[in-house]
């Protein structure tokens, strides 16, 4: 794995964690989560799967 790939993997981990926290807060506050948060989480989870295949 290249340095750039490692960097991208770690950044993606952070993005996923932040998005999960934002979605959890919305759910905890009994609010409807923003569609963009769900879309972003799905996008970054798919990217993470691709990174995992390269490990």
Structure in words:
By secondary structure, this protein is mainly α. Helices cover 84% and strands 0% of the residues. It contains two helices and no strands. The protein is elongated. The model has no long low-confidence stretch (mean pLDDT 93).
Defining key terms:
single chain, 55 residues, mainly alpha, 2 helices
Order of helices and strands: HH
Q: Flag low-confidence runs.
A: none
Number of helices: 2
C-alpha end-to-end distance: 7 Å
- Largest sheet at a glance? none
Gyration radius, to the nearest Å? 13 Å
The portion of residues forming beta strands comes to under 5%
Number of DSSP E strands: 0
Class from helix and strand fractions: mainly alpha
- Give the overall pLDDT as a whole number: 93
Helix content: over 70%
Set down the secondary structure blueprint.
Elements lengths: L2 H26 L6 H20 L1
In short:
With 55 residues, the chain is mainly α. The chain contains 2 helices and no strands.
């Amino acid at each position: 794995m290249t340095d750039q790939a490692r960097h991208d993997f770690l950044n993606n981990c952070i993005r996923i964690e932040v998005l999960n926290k934002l979605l959890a807060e919305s759910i905890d506050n009994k609010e409807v989560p923003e569609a963009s948060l769900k879309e972003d989480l799905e996008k970054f989870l798919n990217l993470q799967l691709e990174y995992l295949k390269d490990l």
